[in-house]
Amino acid sequence: MLKKRRKAGLLAFIIILSFLEGCGTEEEPEQEYPKSLKIGISVYDQYDTFMAEVLYQLQSYVREKEKEWGIPVTLDIQDAGQDQLQQNKQMEDFIEEGCDLVCINMVDRTDASSVIEKAKSNDIPVIFYNRELVKEDLQRWEKLYYVGADALQSGELQGQILVEQCKKDFSSIDKNGDGVLQYIMLEGEAGHNDSMIRSMSVIKEITDSGYVVEKLADEIANWNRDQAANKMASFIEDYGDRIEVVLANNDDMALGAVDALKDSGIIPGTKSWPMILGIDGTDVGRKAVEKGEFLGTVLNDARGQARGMIELAWSIVSDTPLDSETELQEGKYIRLPYQKVTGENLSEIQKRERQMALP
Ligand code: BGC
Known about the structure:
Blueprint: H1 2-26, E1 37-43, H2 49-69, E2 73-79, H3 84-97, E3 101-104, H4 113-122, E4 126-129, H5 135-138, E5 144-149, H6 151-173, E6 180-187, H7 193-208, E7 212-220, H8 225-239, E8 245-248, H9 251-263, E9 275-277, H10 283-290, E10 296-299, H11 302-318, E11 333-336, E12 339-342, H12 346-356
Parallel strand pairs: 1-2, 1-3, 3-4, 4-5, 5-11, 6-7, 6-8, 8-9
Antiparallel strand pairs: 10-12
Helix pairs in contact: 2-11, 3-4, 6-7, 8-9
This protein binds beta-D-glucopyranose.
């Protein structure tokens, strides 16, 4: 009996104790959020049309988020001018200035050691963007991330646009009627992930769909409109009306092809005008679709990538989970999907892009 009473007393004591403990933890300390955010941003070349759109979107998204977070956000944007040594120096400056995090668009994606070492020794997280590092480099430290898009998908979608047109009206593309698609490939940059994968996957998509292709020529034009126009001018001299399709790794180079064709007197919309396809869906690229100069392009989501970078930066610096719309793959990668842009869905895409643009 006595034992039972003692047991009951002990139980009551334990219950009271745990109740008191519970009272103690009821008021958990509030999470401390950063009072400001400073992000260093380096771009490989500020004159690259697509990168300029990404930078514009970064600034516009940050302005929206400042209001929501109620803190000032500073973006220190630096142009590396296609010089890796200059970019390494910018990394040092970002550290000296006390940036909370840096976003780097590598000049040479195979030469990230200096940036990674500096980041690691100063404990500054890095979000690499658009120019994807090799996996081994990204795994060298847990605070290294990548935001970009899936290069394979962009080539596949570019191929699909051509295949859809072939199914509709093959004879208007196959000008010489030999049943083979004679094409020119304008490639971005030697060693650039997007460039290599797009060039390979677009051809695979077309041939997997049962069409036979013949490469007339293939040249690197460094994502650049003028360089592409020069290359295209000499292809027109060499191959003339044999060119049935121009596949460009981006819109600027596809526009270079348009320039060269027009200069040589070929008029858009006539039988001699080849099918031209770009990638990026930049403002100028979409205009070329509208005018019928491009058969189509593939939207590279600049706004989505900017959004991913800023949301990820906030999640890292404030130590809070990422918003539900953003998926972090393998704890390191955010990849935005691409979308086809053709005459058929152009107005819908234009409308959406206009709504997202700031006044
Ligand atoms: C874009 C190109 C751009 C390049 C720069 C690619 O993803 O499609 O337009 O020039 O990135 O790295």
